[in-house]
């Protein structure tokens, strides 16, 4: 969601002339490998196979915008593929490199093809499969900004192939040996975290992220569940990670107070919130907790868990200072 919003904001800034693409030369594997890691869990959950063709081809583009284009194509492929596999690869095409995303999904009918890049357009079963009809529109607009050609081939019931053509690089760029593991950080993350989050999709994402970084996370939906674990099963987490607005129970601040009382110590805590009002942020930080303003990145979350919060120092710093409303 953060990436999509950032892309839309960047497009608006580009159209107003306030921002230009940051074009550089880099190896495709530098964006292929992080994307493969991001999509590994969603693909596995749907019982699909994701194949990434490692390539050392050097291209010339805006790294973040191109990665966002491919991310949206992969997300679309996962959404519309019920069985089989998804392939991300590339091949030379004269002076260009053609990046290809293949899937064995439901495909696109001929009458739908002229409309799929329109904003908010969804196929016949698009609403049931989720999404907002923005992914392919963003791909097209970023392609126009970067002057990258985009094409699609599809057979209904058989699958779809998307192509992005980007210029080949001219200079020598060293190809990285392997991606840096996400868990290698200067500050070690805590051994155990108790997470209270009422949104199922967010719980799932947090669980995957924390597991990838070697954190033993206990994740529940309500304050009552968290208190039961502490009181009845003697759970003793190193850090509390709690959403601010919890449906059907006390808010994050009250939940942390009650958990600290049950634990008998001032357990380090981090509160997640999308409420950027200055008074809200100040009231949260007054409890000696770190504040994460949604949407936040994985690095910001790990920083909150690994730094002063995990060490038990006074965690009143704001990781992202909100604008006054």
User: What's the architecture of the largest domain in CATH terms?
Assistant: 2-Layer Sandwich
Assembly state here?
A: single chain
Helical content stands at 25-40%
Q: How large is the radius of gyration?
A: 22 Å
- The arrangement of helices and strands along the chain is HEHEEHEEHHEEEHEHEHEHEHH
Question: What structural class do the secondary elements suggest?
Answer: alpha/beta
Reported for the largest beta sheet, the result is: 5 strands, mixed
What is the molecular shape? elongated
Distance between the termini: 22 Å
Low-confidence stretches: 177-187, 308-325
Total helical segments = 11
Total separate domains: 2
DSSP summary, beta strand count: 12
CATH superfamily of the largest domain: Histidine kinase-like ATPase, C-terminal domain
What's the CATH topology label of the largest domain?
Answer: Heat Shock Protein 90
Please give the CATH class of the largest domain: Alpha Beta
Averaged pLDDT, please? Answer: 78
In brief:
This protein is an alpha/beta fold. It folds into two domains: 7-167, Histidine kinase-like ATPase, C-terminal domain (Heat Shock Protein 90, 2-Layer Sandwich); 192-311, Rossmann fold. The protein has eleven helices and twelve strands.
